[in-house]
Amino acid sequence: MFYISSMPILLSSDEPQRYLRSFERIVERIPLLKRVVDYLSPPSTPPELFGETFTKRSIVLLTVIMTSSVFLGAVTPWLDIGWAFGEGDLMTWISFFLLCTISYLGHKVWYLRNAGAPFSWNQDAALWRILGYGFLFLAFDELLRIHETLDRVLHRIVGVKPTDMTDHLDDLIIGLYGLVGAICLLRYFRELVPFLKSWKYIAFAALSTILTVVLDFGASAKHIWRKVFDEPKTVQLTIDILDVVEEFFKLYAEVFFVGAFISVLTMLKRPPTLIESDSGISSSRHVRDA
Fold first, then answer.
1. 3-class secondary structure, 187
2. How far apart are CA 94 and CA 172, in angstroms?
3. Is residue 102 over pLDDT 50?
4. Cβ(158)–Cβ(210) under 8 Å?
5. pLDDT reported for residue 88
6. Residue 139 to residues 69, 94, 146: CA-CA distances in angstroms?
7. Do 269 and 9 form a contact (C-beta atoms < 8 A)?
8. Who contacts 130 (Cβ-Cβ below 8 Å, separation ≥6)?
9. Alpha-carbon span 265 to 268, nearest angstrom
10. Would you say 252 and 208 are in contact if contact means Cβ atoms under 8 Å apart?
11. Fewer beta carbons under 10 A from the terminal one: N or C of the chain?
């Protein structure tokens, strides 16, 4: 019936069911939340299509929410188009929830792939736990703005005031986050091979992430927009628009990552021969063993 309890691919049989029942009771008491949950997880959806259905419907829902927020800000005198996109506002909490969800799914994949063995950096399956903790860090970075704090700390350590150029340090830090993630994926690429069917989610997530970084850089480049436009109001409006569009693509990227991890979990519930054949890997070894 509900998003979590109706999807066995997200859960192990040993997980305490009381949390699921508590979640269902909460959903039942909040009609709007129940509608959202039922929309994202239609009861008739086959398990193998859940990731695709969830991703598409989440994109639609987020687009409606964000577009409505922008429209409300545009027509309301005491608001602006970015009223829901600032630090600690609605979109920050949605992003935090999505990143925590990705973290949970990453740990779930690690649990299933690792079969109870202790963590080791030399195991290919370590990738999933690394990603799980990585996205958890990003969740709290989103909430606490850790990268912006590092930006200010670095300015104080060096002893310089922020300028048009050094003010992009936080953008560089975000880029370093992405670089670390890419290095992890390359280091443990062999672990990804059986799940290459999820490539479309990863591709869309990567594209959305790149656009997010570019737009964030553009929104911070006030010195460039001052040269393009003469009116300060036009400069500020341009920056506000870039900030909003950046948030659009950031949330899209997070939804695509959720879809990718759900897709991996779905494949883990299938026979190994099917996983390998989907990835273009010969399953002749399994035939011989049979």
1. helix
2. 24
3. yes
4. no
5. 84
6. 22, 10, 10
7. yes
8. 184, 188
9. 5
10. yes
11. C
pTM: predicted TM-score of the whole model, two decimal places = 0.81
Model confidence at 283, in pLDDT bands (50, 70, 90)? very low
* Cα atoms found within 13 Å of the Cα of residue 193, Cβ hemisphere only: 12
Q: C-alpha distances in angstroms, 31 versus 37, 64, 107, 172, 276?
A: 10, 19, 31, 43, 42
Q: Which single residue is written with the structure tokens 């280091």?
A: 187
Q: Measured between alpha carbons, how far apart are the two ends of the chain, in Å?
A: 38
Residue 96 structure tokens: 């935090």
288: buried, middle or exposed (CB in 10 Å: 19+, 13-18, 0-12)? exposed
pLDDT digits (tens, 9 = 90+) for 195-249: 888 889 989 999 999 999 899 888 888 888 988 898 988 998 999 999 999 999 9
How far is Cα 102 from Cα 131, in angstroms, rounded to an integer? 9
User: Which of 20, 59, 21, 25 lies closest to 39 in space, CA to CA?
Assistant: 59
Q: Both tokens of residue 74?
A: 């545009």
Residue type, 270: R
Q: How far apart are CA 142 and CA 248, in angstroms?
A: 15
Residue 148: partners with Cβ closer than 8 Å, 6 or more residues away? 170
Does residue 125 sit in helix, strand or coil?
A: coil
* b/e code 180-201 from CB counts within 10 Å (16+ = b): ebeeebeebeebbebbeebeeb
